[in-house]
From TrEMBL, chain A:
<dbReference type="InterPro" id="IPR013324">
    <property type="entry name" value="RNA_pol_sigma_r3/r4-like"/>
</dbReference>
<keyword id="KW-0804">Transcription</keyword>
<dbReference type="GO" id="GO:0006352">
    <property type="term" value="P:DNA-templated transcription initiation"/>
</dbReference>
<comment type="similarity">
    <text>Belongs to the sigma-70 factor family. ECF subfamily.</text>
</comment>
<dbReference type="InterPro" id="IPR013325">
    <property type="entry name" value="RNA_pol_sigma_r2"/>
</dbReference>
<keyword id="KW-0731">Sigma factor</keyword>
<dbReference type="Pfam" id="PF04542">
    <property type="entry name" value="Sigma70_r2"/>
</dbReference>
<dbReference type="InterPro" id="IPR014325">
    <property type="entry name" value="RNA_pol_sigma-E_actinobac"/>
</dbReference>
<dbReference type="InterPro" id="IPR013249">
    <property type="entry name" value="RNA_pol_sigma70_r4_t2"/>
</dbReference>
TrEMBL record, chain B:
<keyword id="KW-1133">Transmembrane helix</keyword>
<keyword id="KW-0812">Transmembrane</keyword>
<feature type="transmembrane region" description="Helical">
    <location>
        <begin position="39"/>
        <end position="64"/>
    </location>
</feature>
<protein>
    <recommendedName>
        <fullName>WD40 repeat domain-containing protein</fullName>
    </recommendedName>
</protein>
<keyword id="KW-0472">Membrane</keyword>
Amino acid sequence: MDAAEERRFREFVSARAPALMRLAYLLTGGDQHSAEDLLQTALAKVITRWGRLDEPEAYVRQVMYRQQISWWRLAWRQRETSVADVPEHPAGRAGTDEAELRMILRRALARLTPRQRAVLVLRYLEDLPEDQVAQVLGCSVGTVRSTAHRSLARLRTTAPELADLRLSEVIS
Amino acid sequence: MTPRMLKQTLEEWSREVHVPGDLADRALRRRSRLRLTRFAGAVSCAAVVAAVALLVPLVVVPLFTAEPISQVGGPPVVVPVQPYRQTTPAEDVLADTGNSPPKTMIAAGGVAVSAYYTWRSRTAAGRKVLDRTWYLLDPATKSYEKTEWGWTEVAPGLRWAAVLEKDLPVRRIGIFDMEARQVRAWVPVDHPVGGVAWSPDGTRLLATAYDESPDLDRTSVVERQCPSRVAATPEDPRHPPFQTISTSRTGFYVVDAATATAGDFHAVDPCWTDNSNVRRDFGWSDDGALVREASNVWKRPDAFYDLEGRPHDAPSGYVATESKAGVSPGGTLLAGPDGMPTKVTELSTGEIVGRQQVLQLLAWADDHRLVALGCAGTCGNEFHNGLVLVGVDGENAVPLSEYRKNTQKPEAWEPVLTPR
């Protein structure tokens, strides 16, 4: 990378860092340090291809999605089975206002596995169709669909106030 | 719940992130390190093994490392701690009367059992030391999880906890995310600490430093740490001199949780107050402006210090309390001293407004109810007790926990109550 390329790289990071950090923050479940680390690693990878990428931001995003899932595979595999251990909750109470529900939802999202959270971010924040989600994550459409289903089920189990969250509502 | 709400929540959450200004520099530095390891890997087959060994820590460890980034040249650590605001909980009363120790969340009104510990004593180098096993609430599953921490203290709101590793005192304090169930940042300290207390607003920590374990038995140590004095008070001028037990307490730090930084160490003379405990953790004044050292000697008032560790007058309006519950949330009632029956008085007049058939008043659930220590049956054994919710008028007592068989025996569990 010569001086001109480095300058363009710095301009790119300066312009896109807020959006990329926001994504990294969500993928790491709201962990500032892990989010910084995830983005730094992705940016270090993009440097190796700098000048050959038509859409460096798309590449950074894809690296972050896949990196986060692979890190999690290495270190946190056991967490995916924890859903069955969550005890039953009473039904959600009526009258919970929307701001409170969003806070409850955020907490429940933080407790998803990185893969589950990545699928929900791609599907419902970035509004990507299932086939594109599969492409970004490097898995099948069926895996995307089942992961989304499990993610929403886990949200409902973790937070009974979200009991009316239904896959059909979201996928439609 | 709609897709719109899911999207809004994700957007709102993502806006909490702090965007460092040196991301490009860091990426370029990291790239240089990666290139170096890859070059090493190309030299020989043996070097490939070495390169992998180097590469894995470089890429994987930072995500899961226990060290905050600030310790390796990055920006200040940021933990999204928000000032505590009491909200109306979803469930007014949660009880677990089927398990001792409890398995599922215990809470009433504005307070919850945020953690509990079991204890036993062991002998180390000829001296007894108290060992605690901590069980921490998981607010998402509303259950208690066994931990390996040496000390835990949950912040008001139950979102964060401060944790210390075993073998107190220790040289770092963990800021633990109660929802993600992991330490978000470690705060290093030069003087080892053995206890921590959250400020009333849940944004700062008071960490009490000790030279040796605050749970080490010093009653058998024959030494006079403090000069003997006639410790009289205006209320009780005939009070005899009080022989304090020595302590290894040295002072305190004030820790800012959001930036995970400890301020300067402040030494405090252990002889400034009389105290019969080895563990003498500092706490906060009700307004969070001063450091408070709770008195455990009858009729002796609490001592106060400023945040630099200098002795300070009690804050205006300070009410000396004789119970753990103290003054009601509305500020009009005062919970009376331990001993059945307990009483609640009107703060302004001293008039008794209610008596309760319980052993101790532990915390106010709201202005009309208290979480208390009640005893089983006809109270033939005061150590056969458990948590109950009782009205100020003594009516409508509701068990919150199973009654413990004998709180004097090892492995008994001790609850910690925290505003939720």
